[in-house]
Amino acid sequence: MQELHDAPLAPLTTFRLGGPATRLLTATTDAEVVAAVREADASGTPLLIIGGGSNLVIGDKGFDGTALRIATEGFTLSGTSLELAAGETWTDAVARTVEAGLAGIECLAGIPGSAGATPIQNVGAYGQEVSSTITEVVAYDRHTRETVTIPNAECSFSYRHSRFKAEPDRFVVLRVRFALEEAGGLSAPLAYPETARAMGVEQGERVPASAARETVLKLRAGKGMVLDPEDHDTWSAGSFFTNPILDAAAYGDFLARVRERLGPDVAPPAFPTGDGRTKTSAAWLIDRAGFTKGYGDGPARISTKHTLALTNRGGATTEDLLALAREVVAGVHAAFGVTLVNEPVTVGVSL
């Protein structure tokens, strides 16, 4: 297991921000992961788990403790059953399932990060979420000090949330298992209107899985959501804020503010969640509050391709990024009474 001291963490994140860790360990096997976690817990050393670094905002002072980078490998496909080691690159795994002619995660192509992070955030995009295909998660339980297998029903999946996110200091994901679909090389039914439109088909239709994947990659690239070292619009964590889900009272107040600010004929995006609540679009809120693409004049700005991404234009600090995020949160709340919540995990800092 590789060990470094006073190790820079910024290169391990897609934001390319953050100070150093007191110690950085890189684990390439499940046994090394468990051993490192047990050592940190036994000594009372603060522990930071790093996968692909695509969902981390690390403070400029860094991390006073042990950072553990999970770099395990393992892609095992048996029929329609898939097992991924936590350190596997997610977008590469998606490509391999499509090459195998299987459906279920093809519209999650291009999402940066590692496989182990996908159940934590219940990663989703373009009409698919990993919770619909995950069968179980193998994790090290820091409370019981043993490796456990948690079935889907016990993962408490919801929109961009899970049991693992709710208990961030308990579980360290080691492996993720999926049940995919053999559909003769076709995709799952397209659930997202934008994807269907881009492919010239009706929502709910199936298309070749490879074509669905390529379409999603093009859509994501157009929004700066596919990693490219030369494109500062991708020096981000993707969507920085989750889409707000409002109860009936809050949604009514929101609509009143929209009409007052934008006029009686303006209808914001609305997606009933089936429990009396309504999800609306964070990107719409940000844009209508005056934070348009490319907003900002410092080294941290809103993406020129998508209002939901905050970016490092080069030379930014984490404090630059947080100042922009706080400005956006305050502006949206002042305009619409809705408080945006950051999606990336913050380390040593907060909004």
TrEMBL record:
Its EC number is 1.3.1.98. The gene is murB. GO terms for cellular component: cytoplasm. It is found in: Cytoplasm. GO terms for molecular function: UDP-N-acetylmuramate dehydrogenase activity. SUPFAM superfamilies: FAD-binding/transporter-associated domain-like, Uridine diphospho-N-Acetylenolpyruvylglucosamine reductase, MurB, C-terminal domain. Pathway: Cell wall biogenesis; peptidoglycan biosynthesis. One of its GO terms (biological process) is cell division. Its main location: cytoplasm. InterPro entries: FAD-bd_PCMH (IPR016166), FAD-bd_PCMH-like_sf (IPR036318), FAD-bd_PCMH_sub1 (IPR016167), FAD-bd_PCMH_sub2 (IPR016169), MurB (IPR003170), MurB_C (IPR011601), MurB_C_sf (IPR036635), Oxid_FAD_bind_N (IPR006094). Cell wall formation. It catalyses: UDP-N-acetyl-alpha-D-muramate + NADP(+) = UDP-N-acetyl-3-O-(1-carboxyvinyl)-alpha-D-glucosamine + NADPH + H(+). Its cofactor is FAD. This is UDP-N-acetylenolpyruvoylglucosamine reductase. Keywords: Cell cycle, Cell division, Cell shape, Cell wall biogenesis/degradation, Cytoplasm, FAD, Flavoprotein, NADP, Oxidoreductase, Peptidoglycan synthesis. HAMAP family: MurB (MF_00037). Belongs to the MurB family.
